[in-house]
Amino acid sequence: MAKILPTYLDMIGFLDQNIHTDWSTIEAYRDKMGNPFDVQYVEGITQQTIGNLNCSPFVATDAEYLSNGLQVPNDGLDAELLHKRYAALLWKYGEAKA
C-alpha cells in the first residue's frame, strides 16, 4: 500500500496539481485557522498488546467507526482477522478496477 498509493496518485497527475485550498474562504473553517481540528479524548477503547508495533488495524478500524458516527468498541480487536478483511477489500477493489 505504501508504494501503490503514491504511484497511483502520480499516474493520475494528482501530485502535479498546484491548486491549493484557501481554508479562510470556507465558512466552516473560518474560526478554526489556529486550531483546525476538534479533538475528542476517548477512554476505554481497545489497545494493541505490548510488543506489537502494528497499529494499522486499530487506526483503520477506529477511523471506520468514527467516520460512520459509531461508538468505537472496547471489547478487543482480532488484528489478524482485520488484516484479512482489509486485504480482501483491497483485492475486491483491485478486481473491480481491472
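(the above was protein one; protein two follows)
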Amino acid sequence: MLLQSFMEAMQNRDIEVCASMLHEDFIYIEETTMETRDEWLEATAVMFESSYYTPTEWEATARFETKDMGAIEYTAEKNGHRQMISRVPL
C-alpha cells in the first residue's frame, strides 16, 4: 500500500523515493505553515541529515487508505517525549 511504502521511505531516509511518490502539485500543511513540494523535499532532506530525526522510533497505530486519500496515525519520540501524530494525505 502507498502509505506503508511512504512510511518506509521516511524511515529509510530515502528522499528519492519520497519525491517519486509526491504529485507535482503536492502541498504540505502543518499547523500554521505551508510548503510546496520542492520546499517540503528540501526541508525533509535537511531533516534526514539531522541527528534529532529518529524514524526508527515510529510505531504505526492506525492506517486507512483508499484510492484517493489516506490517513496514518503513529507515535514517535521527540526530545524524550512520546507524541501521537496523525497525517492525512489527499
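Reviewer note on protein two: Helices lie at 2-11, 15-21, 37-49.
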